[in-house]
Design brief:
Arc Repressor Mutant, subunit A, 76 residues, Transposase-MT_Hybrid
Amino acid sequence: MSTEDGERSGRPKEVVTDENIKKIHKMILNDRNLKFNEIADTLKVSTERVHHIHEYLGMRKLCAKWMLRELTFDQK
């Protein structure tokens, strides 16, 4: 009897890849009014994963536009 998990069929566990992070960053820079659902539909991933990926970018939604999390004094 083994205590290790065997391989399973289905979707891969990890969607947060460098490729997806770059795609989302590029999408946000092109259109700062994008919604999480629109990004998720385009990349065929869940909105939960999009929420997780945007943390890697250091961005958040502010007044319905994507902004850097840390604003400089001039940007405030």
